[in-house]
Amino acid sequence: MMKVTNVNPAYVIDEISSQHFIDEHYFIYVVKGIVVLYDGSKYLELRSGQSCIARKNRLGRYYKMREDGELEKVILTLDESFLRRFYNKYKTTIAKFDSTETCIPVNNSELLDSYIGSLHQIYSRGKISEPFSEIKREELILILLQNQPELAGLLFDFGIPAKINLEEFMVRNYTFNVNIERFAFLTGRSISAFKRDFRHIFNETPGRWLVLKRLQEAYFLIEQKGMKPSDIYIDLGFETLSHFSFSFKKQFGMTPTNLSDKRQRSA
């Protein structure tokens, strides 16, 4: 059974994904080790034999961890052009897909496990070698739809994000490292409409608000939770530790390391 948690798991992390915008649907299957996916509100933990679909046009990041020294996973891109070809070929029946989750758990099955085993000689670094790519991805979709027919409503929905509550979305997703154009797209707005609505709601520009919000959260995590600057800067949307430290000092008059040392001395 997959584990869903609202607290950042305390694992020894091998890698954190640098790409936070999910541009296509992705099928993720863990063979060995642990993969944890975060969507802005909760974490989904995948262990050996578990899988999910990471949903297109969402924000998310993943953490990869070894278990008993091993880590092996299969990640396949289910891009829109491929899914359109599949739909036109098989004329799949589509029902409404009700779940709003970013990471959709996939039911375990012997057929799916056998399929993963069949990729051993032809899969490498997220790609299935030609000429097998199309047919093996078709096989995957057929297996998924046999076990969970409702997934058709997710995979073959080729629409774009509709206009949503901007304030709620930004407060939930400000830590993701994506540009303003992405935020505008995901909230169903043009860039000009996004900036106008943003200023009306927050009385600030998106760029300044994002930096300040991230820095305020960093200050809280260091001062109140005792977390190390090096452990939080990526999760808060900063690309490098040096950029994080520079921005932090500019805002608060001290580096995050200074604040951390100050907390330790007063503890």
From TrEMBL:
Matching PANTHER family: HTH-TYPE TRANSCRIPTIONAL ACTIVATOR RHAS-RELATED
Lineage, top ranks: Bacteria, Pseudomonadati, Bacteroidota, Chitinophagia, Chitinophagales
GO molecular function list: DNA-binding transcription factor activity; sequence-specific DNA binding
Domain HTH araC/xylS-type: from-to ranges: 164-262
Pfam hit, one: HTH_18
PROSITE patterns to which the protein is assigned, alphabetical: HTH_ARAC_FAMILY_2
Cross-referenced SMART domains: HTH_ARAC (SM00342)
Keyword Transcription: yes
Signal peptide, first to last residue: none
Protein name as annotated: AraC-type DNA-binding protein
The entry's keywords: DNA-binding, Transcription, Transcription regulation
The organism of origin for this protein: Chitinophaga ginsengisegetis
